[in-house]
Amino acid sequence: MVAFWRDKQAAVEGRRRTSEADLLLFAIIGGSPGAYAARRMFRHKTRKEPFSTQLFVIATLQVGAAIGFLLV
Q: 18: burial class by Cβ within 10 Å (0-12, 13-18, 19+)?
């Protein structure tokens, strides 16, 4: 969530931004719930494609992996 907040602040202030690849990396390493919460709280990257689709795929794979681990 912090990365999304900092990127939103940088966008508003016209400063250097956090790359989408870095934001997606944070989601991959377990930050997808925070990414979705931050998108809603800060209204940031909500309509951005293909970012939204990529984040959805990451979250879906994480949910699938979690279910798989629970069933084993």
A: middle
Per residue in 20-55, pLDDT (tens digit) is 999 999 999 999 999 999 999 999 999 999 999 999
DSSP-assigned letters across all residues of 27-72 = IIIIIHHHHHHHHHHHT-SSS-TTHHHHHHHHHHHHHHHHHHHHH-
Please give the Cα distance from 18 to 10 (Å, whole number). 8
User: In Å, how far are 14, 34, 61, 65 from 42, measured between CA atoms?
Assistant: 16, 12, 24, 28
pTM for the complete prediction?
Answer: 0.91
Coil vs helix vs strand at 54: helix
